[in-house]
Amino acid sequence: xxxxxxxxCGAELSKDEGMKYVCAxxxxxxxxxRTAAAIFPIKxxxxxxxxxxxxxxxxxxDSIGGxxxxxxxxxxxxxxxxxxxxxxxxxxxxxxxxxxxxxEENVYACxxxxxxxxxxxxxxxxxxxxxxxxxxxxxxxxxxxxxxxxRDVPSLLQAYIDNHGPTT
Length: 168
Ligand SMILES: [Zn+2]
Description:
Blueprint: E1 13-17, E2 20-23, E3 28-30, E4 34-43, E5 46-52, E6 61-62, E7 64-67, H1 74-86, E8 94-104, E9 107-116, E10 129-135, H2 153-164
Parallel strand pairs: 4-9
Antiparallel strand pairs: 1-2, 2-3, 4-5, 4-7, 5-6, 5-10, 8-9
The chain binds zinc ion (ZN).
């Protein structure tokens, strides 16, 4: 159980309603979702996924990406995370939608989803990624993927592939 104490005064927090928590001294805290970017490189109908090297969900497939840093745009976060986790650089990120996700207890994310089809650099798993693998998009809807909330992503990726034709 997280979110036990007020960050203003240290008193116990209790859940009010929705995302709002409040302590005995009346300090409110809104546990809003964090903003995150997920990047899906597509090549020959397959998608590049990471295998998580850290908890939560260590060992499961995950999208490349992560949380947005202070004063960063989502696009900047996507560029930075792509480089940090794969060694790749891309200049064109196509937005395909977003997904609300439970990251861990009391930690919620809203993931903006991007497809890339062109990139430069030498691919190398780095940072918190155990390995990188080209897989069928359907893997994202399976139990091997870390986040059940992403079950609709394969159809978004397929729609992108259908609209843009084969990618190289
Ligand atoms: Zn307080």
